[in-house]
């Protein structure tokens, strides 16, 4: 049976984070608050748990899951290399609402969906999410909703959609405006803006000193 923990209460938050960490290590799913919307997460290196995540969302591998990290340095171990452009974006916007697509390290044993050798990484600006990530390591995280339905901005909305498929719900209160993260792809010859979200195209272009629409 699913458990819900109020992370605005200190004791409940401590218990909830311990329960969530235990669930992740046991190949189960958790819902956690982030700085955008609520996310449903699993151990990024547990292929079975990631498949459970996709089933819970009624989503196929053609829409791969991104990875949340708890520190800047974690990215070095997940990717084939971190180019200067990526480091500039990380320094400017992490923790925060920017996701970066990079070639993943070929040695990693994971299955996040049809990624074509890439991984989308982000460090969220939310204390509960960061504490869990620093405890369990990188997590595969997607918005906490069934595909085709609105993203959850509260733990209750997430539970209404995902129910008992999730072991632990960490309730951090309303997430605010449900604006998704901005996604920048750095796997090609030029940076490409895949989605404009909380961080504007102009802000990204200013940091990189060049357009992010794929044009020279």
TrEMBL record:
Q: Which reaction does it catalyse?
A: L-threonine + hydrogencarbonate + ATP = L-threonylcarbamoyladenylate + diphosphate + H2O
Give EC number(s), comma-separated. 2.7.7.87
Reading the lineage from the top rank, the first entry is Bacteria
- Chief subcellular location equals cytoplasm
Biological process per Gene Ontology, one example term: regulation of translational fidelity
One GO cellular component this record assigns the protein to is:
cytoplasm
Question: For this protein, what is any one GO molecular function term?
Answer: L-threonylcarbamoyladenylate synthase
Gene3D superfamilies for the chain: DHBP synthase
Subcellular localization: Cytoplasm
Annotated keywords: ATP-binding, Cytoplasm, Nucleotide-binding, Nucleotidyltransferase, Transferase, tRNA processing
Query: To which protein family does this belong?
Result: Belongs to the SUA5 family.
Protein name (record)? L-threonylcarbamoyladenylate synthase
Q: Which organism is it from?
A: Amycolatopsis cihanbeyliensis
């Amino acid at each position: 049976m699913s458990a819900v923990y109020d992370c605005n209460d200190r004791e409940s938050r401590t218990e909830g984070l311990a329960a969530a960490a235990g669930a992740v290590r046991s190949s189960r799913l958790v819902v956690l608050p982030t700085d955008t919307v609520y996310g449903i997460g699993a151990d990024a290196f547990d292929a079975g748990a990631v498949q459970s995540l996709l089933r819970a969302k009624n989503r196929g591998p053609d829409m791969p899951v991104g990875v949340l990290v708890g520190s800047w340095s974690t990215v070095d171990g997940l990717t084939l290399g971190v180019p200067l452009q990526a480091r500039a974006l990380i320094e400017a916007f992490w923790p925060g609402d920017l996701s970066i697509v990079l070639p993943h390290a070929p040695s990693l044993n994971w299955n996040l969906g049809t990624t074509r050798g890439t991984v989308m990484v982000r460090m969220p600006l939310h204390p509960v999410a960061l504490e869990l990530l620093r405890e369990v390591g990188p997590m595969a995280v997607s918005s906490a909703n069934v595909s085709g339905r609105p993203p959850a901005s509260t733990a209750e909305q997430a539970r209404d959609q995902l129910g008992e498929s999730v072991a632990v719900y960490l309730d951090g209160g309303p997430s605010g405006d449900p604006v998704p993260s901005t996604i920048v792809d750095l796997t090609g010859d030029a940076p490409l803006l895949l989605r404009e979200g909380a961080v504007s195209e102009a802000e990204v272009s200013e940091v990189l000193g060049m357009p992010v629409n794929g044009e020279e």
